[in-house]
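Teaching assistant's notes for section 4

Start the section by putting this record on the projector. Ask students to predict, before seeing the second block, whether cytochrome-c oxidase will look compact or extended. Collect guesses on the board.
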Amino acid sequence: MEKEQFYYDNKIVKMFLWATILWGVVGMLVGLLVALLFVFPGLLEFAGADNAISWLSFGRLRPLHTNAVIFAFVGNGIFLGIYYSTQRLLKARMFNDVLSRVHFWGWQAIIVAAAITLPLGLTSSKEYAELEWPIDIAVVLIWVIFGINLIGTILKRRQRHIYVAIWFYIATFITIAVLYIFNNLEMPVSAFKSYSVYSGVQDALVQWWYGHNAVAFFLTTPVLGLMYYFVPKVANRPVYSYRLSIIHFWTLIFLYIWAGPHHLLYTALPEWAQNLGTVFSIMLIFPSWGGMINGLLTLRGAWDKVRENPVLKFFVVAITGYGMATFEGPMLSFKNLNAIGHYTDWIVGHVHIGALAWNGFMVAGIVYWLAEKLWKTPLYSKKLANTHFWLGTLGILFYAIPLYVAGFTQAFMWKQFNPDGTLVYGNFLETVTQVIPMYAMRAIGGTLYLTGFILLAINVIKTAKAGSTVEDELAEAAPLKKISGKRVAGEGFHTWLERRVVLFTILTTIAILIGGLVEIVPLILVKSNVPTITSVKPYTPLELEGRDIYIREGCNNCHSQMIRPFRSEVERYGEYSKAGEFVYDFPFLWGSRRTGPDVHRIGGKYNDNWHFNHMMDPRSTSPGSIMPRYTWLIKNDMNASNLESKMTGLVSLGVPYTPERISGAKQELLAQAKEVENNLRQDPEFVKNYGSSNIQNKEIVALIAYLQRLGTDIKANKTALK
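Reveal the predicted structure now:
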């Protein structure tokens, strides 16, 4: 059959390559700054301790780091690999050049919007989904454009059967669309403020259904697709097992979607949902390790090349890191291990094995290999690439191992009791100061890893300068000839399915929907899953404003609001948390880590002056604390201009504010704020420092009111369960 000539679009691949390198450096640099703040809390207080800069505080930089690394660095790296491999696997140029450019520039615009809004405190607070509603809409639109471009290319392909990498790309597009839309359903109340349509327990389940599967279907499945393409290409070996790749794909996408509840073990989530998440999480080890084995055994007969080829070195450590992370994840879903690991730095170390080794090294290897292909020239320096490899590997070890030590240290110190039944380390700060040396080592690891990536940037820039600038690559392939949709003689079922792309996509969609529907629908529709507590009331207007300030400052990055039913936690914090306490929490704020103590029962534990002093200078109330100062809260006036629209929006979500209360909200806010100010003036030191200043309209007052409310509903009536 006569072949057609066409051109692969290398320009779009180069654009994503440069974006990957740029955002990699930026994301890792912010991550290093965040790590250093654990060792030097005042590091970024350039204007002096009394003039701390709000947008440089940990609570605002941490989501900036996670978003920059996940969506900017790894995201661009995924698109880099997909745009290159898809064209060659399907023997077709991307469906539409304009869509390719809109996808690229739209994605970069979203990243820039995130980089501006997150430090400004414009956040929904939901982990890995912090962006506010206008940016969420933009993400969905750009994702749809990417999907049209991908599916359009598949439909106009010149290759009859779609290769395993394409299976994973299809699953990624479908699942991320479903996850992102349903997790980010929110009620806008102003231009950059919204409330999740789910509350409390339901919001927690939906968030971790998304959060766990954002890791699964953004940081794992597309990267597995890249592994299935680039590892055989670089090693010049076929994939070890086609059958194993089939089992790997279908079991992975079916099982992964169920596993989210293992992030919520021992919380107020119903027991049946926790157990379901645990069972499926444990089963995940089989398809995950099947993929790892398929990747590593593809190198059989090519291990001599690993010694000489830096790209293969990156791939081997990346796949090994994937195996380690996907072994540890199921193990952490066992309740006895989760009881040790959750809320500690063990989880941070676990996550970074996946991020630094699996994602970071996989992307680095792809960038090095593509630099030679795209600029038609040898890599500028293999020695520099090898140096990057060893610096990065050492960086991973220096990063993760100290955090594992820190995690076990925290867990065991939190749980130790004296013979008389009191906690050995009753002061939470004792457990913080103990692990600061490990935080210092983590910062050293981050420095090594970032240094290695900067060497990559230099290497690729030098390679590009030495190479050619050809942006369209000539190729040829025979056009597809239509054949019957029925299976032909000798054609296996899956081989037949690989040429029926629409059916393949439908089956993929069904596979990923089942788990989410089974877990989420009953929790939302069956009221008995969240028993009501009659003493739990909606937040007052001032407390609502304080809660929004708490969210803005990212306090939930360090403080949990979930006391688990452990003897140690009940002794340390008070009565364990109940599902019905969170029915008016839009969104939930249970947190995933404790750098500071849990605050769910903090209401009434300290007086208002303690909270005031703690926010102005944490070291004054808690010597050795690594919490940042929040001095801007005494300077900023409360902005209650949207108070009525906030309360009206919450009414539509089921919060029982009456029209009369909404219309009188500002008066109620001022009255409660005056009470807080009067309480503060009981302290002569406060009067001495602030004299006759009117602070009842300052943000600090609202935050104090919110903190003093936490956990007090159930104290008021412990037997109010219906």
